[in-house]
Amino acid sequence: MLWRFIKKDLLRHARDPVALILWAAIPLAVAILMRAAFGGDGQIPQATLVIADQDDSFASRLLGAAFRAGPLAELIHAEEADSARAVELARQGEVSAALFIPRGFGKRYLDGGTPTLTLLRNPSQSILPAIVEETISVLADGGFYVRELFGDPIRTIRALAASDTVGASGSEIATGIQTSMERIGVYFFPPVLTVANMGASSDGAGRAEETDAVANASDESTGILEIFFPGILTMSMLFLGQALAVDIWAEHKLGTFRRLHVTPKGVGGLVLGKVIAGTLILWLIFELLLLLGRYVFRIDLERIHLAALYSAMCGFGILAALHFIMVLAKSENGGTILGTLVVMPLVFLGGSFFPFETLSPTMRAIGMATPNGQILVQIKRIVSGGPLDAVVWITPLIAIGLGLAFTLLAARGARRRFLGAS
Amino acid sequence: MIEVERLTKMYGERIAVDDVSFTVRPGEIFGLLGPNGAGKTTTISCLSGLLKPTSGSIRIDGHDIVHDGPKARASIGVIPQELAIYPEISARQNLEYWGAVQGLSREQIKQRMETVLDRVGLAGRAKEPVKNFSGGMKRRLNIAIGLIHDPKVLLLDEPTVGVDPQSRTHILELIRERARAGVAVLYTTHYMNEAEELCDQLAIIDHGKVVAQGTLEELLARAGDVIQRASVPEPSLERLFIHLTGAALRE
Questions:
Q1: pLDDT digits (tens, 9 = 90+) for B172-212
Q2: Which domains does chain A have, with CATH numbers?
Q3: Other beta carbons within 10 Å of A378
Q4: Quick check: A285 and A24 in contact, CB under 8 A?
Q5: ipTM value of the model?
Q6: A-chain residues within 8 Å CB-CB of B48?
Q7: Cα angle at B199 between B113 and B202, to 5 degrees?
Q8: CB-CB neighbors (< 8 A) of A264 in chain B
Q9: How far apart are CA A279 and CA A288, in angstroms?
């Protein structure tokens, strides 16, 4: 009989698939907007830095050159401007930050003094200016150690600085420094490492032993869509779950819930059937989304099926909980509002809108404690090719257990809500 | 067979049904008449197991609706006042679902579905989504769902509201046919001519109490007395109804 309940809902949704497609499309739309917001090239968001070089010395030009080659060039797009233009660009919010290299910077640096750099941050951005500031801070530290450790080249530089020309030997020095920087780049570019590591690790804590695997998994660059993709799945789970769960109110409005109650079958089967039918729909949509991911991110086919199954099993628990929430409200609108009040904070905290990689450690810990945060971390592990042990399946098994409990509560709540005093 | 004995249903302090008793035998159509809010729907809800009576007893085909609910409900075909169908799926899919819910096997559903679709005149459009149906067709499907398991007892709550005369005639004939087949029918309506035309036994209920009960002839004879006293020329069920329940507008 349970199959009849499931089949009925599958048929109903199949006849009216537009609503579900729209709900499933919302997370995709969010991802596309995110991509557009970060430049639309599908890569890690690139900070823009305008450099106002008031010194125009060899050292100041070397500093500017550091942003135009190697990994820094991928992270930060640098361009030069005079001071007034740099201030204007920063104030208009057209760049992430403006760096002012004061007159005498080169001389003070080479003389062993402590030159000061001024950075004007774009207040409308938070992460990208922070990346620029952190990078300049690391460069400044690096510059100090270079001066302390490389006495001979420094002297050559000083001689060149005195002549104020950059010839072949100047280029060699710049290349040598660049090579050294690339060699020690792993210490210079921690933000890149952090993003990559957390994107692929199981717990987001950046465990050291996984660094090599992460480096392989995120070969060239981790695309912004790749960072958001698992979040899109969990967002879809929550949005679709809410859209499917509100259908219990449709049973009430159609009068079919009351009619069922006067048959020999109980309403518990109806609610369980709705949750299972919803789970099957989620499964299908996850397969489709993940297959889309296969073409964009080259996810292994076996992992796609595994991730879809995993998501569907967890989706069962989420769906059942949302059914229960729906019948706590006194009306369909109330149910929708209550569902939204639960779903939206979960979406925001659980790593869907703001990937864990961009959150502070505290917020990350909170996000990972949410049900969808837990699910997201495991989906990441599955789709990134991470190791799979029995522990991975604990979450879906718990979700199914909780789902059955919530189904019972939802059936009881629906009886009370829809049948009143009976 | 429906046996209702001293049925009372209270909502807090308010009495919705007050000490109502009646019996509907197999093959009999029992009309329950009353103005809005008189207690008709509450009575049917108690009979179908939707509401638990405050006191009194209800037996359906020999089974107590409270203590032996599933068996009692298996004998009942309920045709609710409001439509209770799934508009997105076809009439056939609706009947398959409700047949299964009533405990019919796949084979039984197949057999019964053809019969009831034919009887309600929907055989030709059984594969269409119900949302494409007219109001009358939806009403007929609503009735077909109540008949899919060939119940021994039929509870109909104003099944002809809002349907065209053709559909109404069809529905009334269908009810007569079920009664001829031995089904005990409880029928509520606002239409006095329908009650006169259809029912073997009638009860007029107001403020939860039965104020008159008997065959049409018995009630008309009583109406004759009343009407003669009121100097109105011709006895009718409607005049008796208005006399017993008052002319004031109801909610």
A1: 999 999 999 999 999 998 888 888 889 999 999 988 999 88
A2: 2-38+223-419 (no CATH), 47-188 (3.40.1710)
A3: 25
A4: yes
A5: 0.85
A6: 262
A7: 130
A8: 70-71, 73-74, 101-103
A9: 14
